[in-house]
Amino acid sequence: MNPPRIIDHLLSADDHASMLAAVESHDFPWERSAILAGEFPGLDPHDNLQDVHGFYAWRNQRIFRSPHLSMIASVLATFEPMRLIKAKLNRTYRRPRHIEYGLHVDTRRRGAITAIYYLNTNNGYTLFEDGTRVASVANRMVLFNAELRHTGASCTDTPTRLVLNLNLIPGPGASPDTQR
């Protein structure tokens, strides 16, 4: 998978609506976090903040699982079987102008892919180092080699931009659309 691959209408309309309603609920737990660690030239520290919910992380032979992990099961089923490295929901807020946070890679794990699932439609986007831009369209997923540098960009037209960020190694039985 060299260029990013886009899959529209990943989930059924009902599954997508259910997931969106759950994360927009007042009961859903969020934590405040930096968008990117380290210094990125031109990025104001006040713009480097987002709300996150970590669904899953596998680091240093330890596993963290959120009690809400089942909420994203329909997205994860796209990759069955697989080795999940990280699953995190990001919520960034509307800004008066688009802010591109900084080119980065999410993981350097050999054989890994990054998948970004857009929960809501807005004018934010994912930008790749080569200039490829993927619009934030609800129920869309973009898949790409985890070695590709990319950045998110804030929205200016809706209160929030909601994306599910996955880092994983797809298994041999995964859908051909999700293979590296």
Overview of the molecule:
The chain is mainly β. The chain has a single domain (5-178), classed as q2cbj1_9rhob like domain (Jelly Rolls), CATH 2.60.120. It has helices at residues 13-24, 73-76, and strands at residues 5-8, 31-34, 49-59, 62-65, 82-93, 113-118, 125-128, 133-135, 140-145, 150-153, 160-170. A hairpin with a 2-residue loop joins strand 3 (49-59) and strand 4. The chain is globular. The protein starts with a strand and ends in a 10-residue tail after the last strand.
Features of the shown structure:
38% strand, mainly beta, Jelly Rolls, 9% helix, 180 residues, single chain, globular, eight-stranded antiparallel beta sheet, 11 strands, three-stranded antiparallel beta sheet
| Second-tier CATH architecture | Sandwich
Q: Helix and strand string, N-terminal first?
A: EHEEEHEEEEEEE
CATH class value: Mainly Beta
**Number of structural units classed as domains:** 1
- Hey, roughly how much beta strand do the residues contain? 35-45%
Poorly predicted parts = none
CATH topology: Jelly Rolls
Shape: globular
Report mean pLDDT, rounded to a whole number.
89
Please name the fourth-level CATH homologous superfamily. q2cbj1_9rhob like domain
User: Counting H and I runs of at least 4 residues, what is the number of helices?
Assistant: 2
Give the helix proportion (percent range).
under 10%
